[in-house]
Amino acid sequence: MKVILNQDIPNLGEIGDIKEVASGYARNYLLPKKMVMVYNEKTEAMFLKRQAEIQAIKEQKRLSSRSLKERIESEPLVISMPAGKNGKLYGAVTSHTIAEELLKKNIEIDRKRIEVPDRTIKSVGNYKILIRLYEKDEAILHCNIEAQASASIEEKKPSEEVGKKRRSRRQRTESEPASPEEQAAAFEAAVNRGHLS
Q1: How many angstroms separate the CA atoms of 149 and 36, rounded?
Q2: Distance (Å, rounded) from C-alpha 144 to C-alpha 161?
Q3: In a domain, 54, yes or no
Q4: Residue range of the domain that includes 31
């Protein structure tokens, strides 16, 4: 079925484009949502009258695409990821990761427009990421993947400290009997928790 697009539709076309689509797709999805109009002489004439408006919309998209390209290429994107000593990442950087990092810089790009080399980046280093913009415009994003700084030995997590205390208490109870006061306190705590009645 031949239709004229009433708005931009991803992977199909832009407003004013004439496209051939499956009849079921048009009848069940595109036409009920008023995304397209059936192509005929009447609709073609209507879109010819709107041609100046459509061209103005497209020109605005071209201008915003150029400014977006300048913003993307102006400074490299730095991503810190957990990595091993050999530089291999514990995770992977994907188009989704890049899109999220760009969003933090107020640059909104659909992840489908981001082409990561080999689909994922699995080691630290400098990479060039291709981002497809409007029409044939493309931007090259310089991306620096670096290893996340690991916590120093002195900075121990609270959970590690609790685990150490539990282990030392367990080791002490295995090696030497608890004092009568410690036994009474343990018994009272067990009663309060409802383990003993």
Answers
A1: 52
A2: 35
A3: no
A4: 2-49
Using one digit for the tens of pLDDT, what is the confidence trace for 49-73?
Answer: 988 998 998 899 889 999 999 999 9
What is the C-alpha separation between 10 and 58, in angstroms, rounded?
A: 15
pTM given for the model: 0.61
Burial level of 19, CB count in 10 A (0-12/13-18/19+)? middle
The rounded Cα 63 to chain-centroid distance in angstroms is 26
Q: pLDDT averaged over the chain?
A: 83
The answer to whether residues 73 and 94 belong to one domain is yes
* Contacts with 189 (C-beta within 8 Å, 6 or more apart), sequence order: none
Count structural domains, the chain: 3
Which letter does DSSP use for residue 32 in this model? T
Q: At 140, list the tokens.
A: 């090259």
**Structure tokens belonging to residue 182:** 């410690």
**Phi-psi bin for 34: left (phi > 0), alpha (psi -120 to 50), beta?**
left
